Amino acid sequence: MSARLTARQHILRALGVVFVGLGFVGAFLPLLPTTPFLLLALACFARSSPAIHDWLISHRILGPYIVDWERDRSIPLAAKLMSIVMMTASFAWLALGTSAPAIALWMTGAILICVAAYILTRPTSR
Questions:
Q1: 98 and 116 assigned to the same domain
Q2: In the Cβ-directed half-sphere of 118, how many Cα atoms lie within 13 Å?
Q3: What is the pLDDT of residue 1?
Q4: In whole angstroms, what is the distance from residue 50 CA to residue 42 CA?
Q5: Are 93 and 35 part of one and the same domain?
Q6: How confident is the model at residue 17, as a pLDDT?
Q7: Which of 25, 44, 82, 125 would bridge 12 by S-S if both were Cys, CB 3.0 to 4.6 A apart?
Q8: What is the pLDDT of residue 80?
Q9: Of 116, 51, 47, the residue nearest 84 (C-alpha)
Q10: What's the pLDDT score for residue 44?
Q11: Which range marks the domain in which residue 105 is found?
């Protein structure tokens, strides 16, 4: 492979950066997931920049989550609890702090229940 990056590699790197950014924001916003975006970023970097891929896996904060997920599809207990608490708080705010229509409440509640069920049924990492 030549030293020059192909258009595909440029696009994958750009997508990887966007996904890392979304994953970072998702660490603070309850309805935006972190790990799926980091996994997407990892896939993009695996095909465009092995150095960035390796950096992401060895990152002291983000790396363990990615490695746990890739190894055995597990989620740390603290992450499970935080996600459930934040989803519950978000839904409570939507239901009690806004004038959202009933259909929005029902749809949001159904989605959050499905997401919570998925999270809770994944193995818990060490």
A1: yes
A2: 10
A3: 47
A4: 9
A5: no
A6: 93
A7: 44
A8: 86
A9: 116
A10: 92
A11: 74-126
The residue to which tokens 């409440």 are assigned: 105
pLDDT along the chain (126 residues), means of 10: 76 93 80 78 90 89 80 84 87 93 95 92 86
Total structural domains within the chain: 2
DSSP state letters, 26-93: HTTSTTS-SHHHHHHHHHHHHHH-HHHHHHHHH-TTTHHHHHHHHHH--EEHHHHHHHHHHHHHHHHH
Distance between CA 102 and CA 93 in Å, rounded? 14
Residue 18 backbone dihedrals phi, psi, to 5 degrees? -60, -45
pLDDT value of position 77: 87
Specify the DSSP element, H or E, that contains 124. Answer: strand 124-125
Same domain, 96 and 65: no
Token couple for 22: 């979304």
User: Are residues 90 and 67 both part of a single domain?
Assistant: no
State how far the alpha carbon of 91 is from the alpha carbons of 86, 115, 118, in Å: 8, 13, 17
Longest dimension (CA), the chain: 58
